[in-house]
Amino acid sequence: MKVNEIRQFDNGRLQERLREIDQELFNLRFQKETGRLTNSARFGQLKQEYARVKTVLRERELAQAEGGRE
């Protein structure tokens, strides 16, 4: 998912997406340990999307803090 797509979601949906990514990463780690992993590149994709979502949330947090100062 691209960052422009991520920015269209509200904070609640972004938090939900973080939980989904965490669950999917857990499942991938489990598959890796049991020898059933078919797409190891998915780890990198999920980690990158996780970082993008966290970045957007942090940007919004900082923007809200800036707005509260004035």
Helices, by number, come to 3
Describe the oligomeric state of these chains in a short phrase.
single chain
- Work out the radius of gyration: 15 Å
Overall shape: it is: elongated
Mean pLDDT: 95
Query: Strand portion, in percent?
Result: under 5%
Name given to the CATH architecture: Orthogonal Bundle
CATH topology, by name, is Helix Hairpins
As for the number of domains, it is 1
Task: Please report the total strand number as a whole number.
Answer: 0
Structure classification = mainly alpha
Give the biggest sheet.
none
- The share of residues in helices is over 70%
How far is the N terminus from the C terminus?
A: 34 Å
**Series of secondary-structure elements, N-terminal to C-terminal:** HHH
CATH class group: Mainly Alpha
- Unreliable stretches: none
